[in-house]
Structures are given as C-alpha cells and as structure tokens.
Automatic annotation (TrEMBL), chain A:
It comes from the Bacteria. Pfam families: Pyr_redox_2. Keywords: Disulfide bond, FAD, Flavoprotein, Oxidoreductase, Redox-active center. One of its GO terms (molecular function) is oxidoreductase activity, acting on a sulfur group of donors, NAD(P) as acceptor. PROSITE patterns: PYRIDINE_REDOX_2 (PS00573). SUPFAM superfamilies: FAD/NAD(P)-binding domain. Residues 2-278 form the FAD/NAD(P)-binding domain. InterPro entries: FAD/NAD-bd_sf, FAD/NAD-binding_dom, Ferredoxin-NADP_redctase_2, Pyr_nucl-diS_OxRdtase_2_AS. It comes from Candidatus Colwellbacteria bacterium CG10_big_fil_rev_8_21_14_0_10_42_22. The keyword Flavoprotein applies. This is FAD/NAD(P)-binding domain-containing protein. PANTHER family: THIOREDOXIN REDUCTASE 1-RELATED-RELATED.
TrEMBL record, chain B:
InterPro entries: GlrX_YruB (IPR011911), Glutaredoxin (IPR002109), Glutathione_S-Trfase_N (IPR004045), Grx-like_ET (IPR051548), Thioredoxin-like_sf (IPR036249). It comes from Candidatus Colwellbacteria bacterium CG10_big_fil_rev_8_21_14_0_10_42_22. It comes from the Bacteria. Residues 1-77 form the GST N-terminal domain. One of its GO terms (molecular function) is electron transfer activity. It holds the Pfam family Glutaredoxin. This is NrdH-redoxin. GO terms for biological process: cell redox homeostasis.
C-alpha cells in the first residue's frame, strides 16, 4: 500500500514527486509521458531560473530530476483508467496496461487535453480528415475543401494556416459571432476563400476511408445541411483530464477539480489536485509546480499528524 | 536501424521529433512532403492517414509525436 500515488508527469507531477521523495512519503508516480503540454513548445522563456528552454529539454530535465530521487517508485508509459474508493484514505488505482495499486492518498496532476469533436465519425476519422493541428497538416489539404470548427483565436489562426493550401474554407461557429483577434478576423472576412457560418451544430462526420462530408443542423433555420469536404480542423478548446475522479470529488462547470486553495485538497479528504486538472485560474507550468508542492506538503502534514498504524 | 520521417515545414511536432533524435544521436532521413507529391502519397499509403509527422522505423509506422512510443520503437528496432 502506497501512502501517495501521483498521477501525471508534467511540471506539477514531477515537482510533487521530488518533494514526496525528499519527505520519504511512500510514493508511486504514474506518468504516461514527461513534460506535460509544453513538450511541443519551441521556446519557453518563463520557466523561472531558466532564460530559455525548449519543451523537450524541459521534459528531459523534469524526467532527470525525478529519476535522481531514490525514494520514489515510477510507472512510466501507462495511464490510470480507474480509481475505486475502498474506504476513507483507501483507494485502488487501475491502469490501462492492467496494473493495480492501493494507496491512502491521490494527487491528481493529470493536466488537460484538446477537446475532441464528439459526434459520430469524429473519432473514426481522426487523422483521416479530422485534424487538430492546422500548421502541421494544412499542406495535406492542397486544393481541397475544408472546414474549421470553432470561431475563437485558435480557430481563426487555423483558417489563416489553411489559406495558402485549401481551395475553400468553411469557418463553422456554434454561436452568433467570432471571438479572437480583430486583425486576424478582418483578414479572414476579406478572403474570397473563406465562408463563415454561424449557428452551426455539427451532427456527423461522414466518409469511407477518409472524410467526405460534414452534416450539421442550422440552429437558426432548423435545417439539416451537408457540406462536401475532405478536411475538418477542430479548435474547440481543451478539457481537464478528470474523468477518473468525476464520481469521487466535486468538479466545477468546466469539469475541473474544486480544491481548497490553501491546501489543494479536493472535496474528498484523500484526494488532492493541482495544475490544469484543478480549478486554479491560471494554467501555467510554474503555478502547477508550486500548487502541486503545496499539495504534497499538506499531504505530509496529514501523514505526520496521524498516529502510525 | 533506418528512420524515415515525413514532415511539413511549420509542424511543431516534427520540430520536436527532430530535436528528440538529435539529442539521442540517432540519424534519420527527413522528407518534406510539401516539396514532393510522390512522398506525400507514399506517406499516406504507409500511414493510411492525413497527418504528420509520420515515422517509418524499420517498417514500423508511427503517426504523431509521442516520446514514449518513439522510445519504445527505437529500442525494439
């Protein structure tokens, strides 16, 4: 039985791991990957103490710092898929690869992920026309008709990235207006290639081997519309990785773990959370690390104030 | 071990992957599919996907940059 299982290998997870090891808390850290979402950043200039570092270097440093600790167990390349509460301060954690561990406490620092297009065909055609990185994949849609889903900044930027390649771009937005930067918006509105449609409620992505169309309901007229196209670029924000605790702790409207901001403890006295998985206002590497450390220190207080069994 | 990597010029995941191979001193061949239509078709027939980066590591095809999966593929190869 572990005293603590830390879930996540980003700055929060690693910071927690280092502190837990140094406090000699009997800890297992489970990380699918090291580095968190910043791993693909070109150049991070606000990681305190380092003028400039690439995301990959940061990931290597985090991994190295954690692995330099003797007093911590590590499960790498696996993912927690289920947490079962067996009693007060007693949980069973199960992983995708079939491993099971028992622990007294959990620190959830699992971050967030891009929101996927949750309609029939969205997952089936992921990578087969449904795309999440316009800067990467736009050249593959040369002379093809595409859609960008989402009228926020990321959506607008995707349209700009697609302009040199696609023959036509539908910009589809659920609400009645585009958000985002005024200069980018103007550029898009002036382009002959782009057609903006509002009140779009996407119903289905269709195709055979690859995407051939997109079906939506026009929320203004109530009509069903089908667009013939070969690419759908999705930019609809992110979601916290909190599915595994949703039945155990209180989440806010955005599905982030509600925490006591002094201690990072959740509504369950055996579960803490920090970083993008938590309701913290600012999603930053430095803040995730600091908040995760706060959690470990609170966990240490809880352990040391309890009589040992 | 032969690694062929299909990329596009502004793809951040491709850039990270290149850095990843360089830090591990692993040599690889990069093919920019925007400059070579034949290579684009070859990539799509290998991966059955419309997405970069694609890695061909001694015949094992990986789509997208995932550090853990790449490390595994390299160790196996």
């Amino acid at each position: 039985m572990y005293q603590l299982i830390i879930i996540g290998g980003g700055p929060g997870g690693v910071a927690a791991g280092v502190y837990a090891a140094r406090k000699k808390i009997k800890t297992l850290l489970i990380a699918e990957e090291f580095g968190g979402q910043s791993v693909v950043s070109d150049d991070i200039q606000n990681w305190i103490g380092t003028k400039s570092i690439s995301g990959l270097e940061l990931a290597n440093n985090l991994e190295g710092h954690l692995k330099a600790q003797k007093d911590i167990d590590l499960l790498e390349g696996d993912r927690v898929i289920k947490i079962k509460k067996l009693g007060e301060n007693h949980f069973k954690v199960a992983t995708r690869d079939g491993k099971e561990y028992e622990t007294e406490r959990i620190l959830l620092v699992s971050g967030s992920r891009r929101r996927r297009l949750d309609v029939p065909g969205g997952e089936e055609f992921d990578g087969k026309g449904v795309a999440y990185c316009a800067t990467c994949d736009a050249p593959l849609f040369k002379n093809k008709v595409v859609a960008v889903v989402g009228g926020g900044n990321a959506g607008l930027e995707s349209v700009i990235d697609l302009m040199p390649y696609a023959s036509k771009i539908y910009l589809l937005e659920k609400n009645g207006h585009l958000r985002g930067d005024a200069v980018t918006k103007k550029k898009i509105e002036e382009s002959d290639k782009v057609e903006i449609r509002f009140g779009v409620d996407i119903q289905e992505i269709v195709g055979k081997q690859f995407v051939s169309g997109l079906k939506y309901k026009d929320m203004n007229s109530g009509e069903d519309v089908e667009l013939k196209l070969e690419g759908v670029f999705v930019e609809i924000g992110s979601v916290p990785n909190t599915d595994i605790v949703k039945k155990l702790v209180k989440l806010n409207k955005r599905d982030e773990v509600v925490v006591n901001h002094k201690t990072m403890q959740s509504s369950d006295s055996g579960i803490w959370s920090a970083g993008d998985a938590s309701e913290v206002l600012y999603k930053q590497n430095n803040i995730s690390a600091g908040d995760a450390i706060k959690a470990v220190l609170d966990i240490y207080d809880q352990i040391t104030s309890q009589p040992t069994e | 071990m032969t690694i062929k990597m299909y990329t596009t010029p502004f793809c951040k995941y491709c850039k990270v992957a290149k850095e990843f191979f360089k830090t591990k001193n692993i040599s690889f061949t990069e093919v920019d599919i925007t400059k070579d239509d034949k290579a684009m078709k070859e990539m799509m027939s290998k991966s059955q996907q419309m997405s970069v980066p694609v890695f061909d590591i001694d015949g094992e095809i990986l789509v997208g940059f995932n550090r853990t999966k790449l490390e595994k593929a390299i160790k196996v190869a």
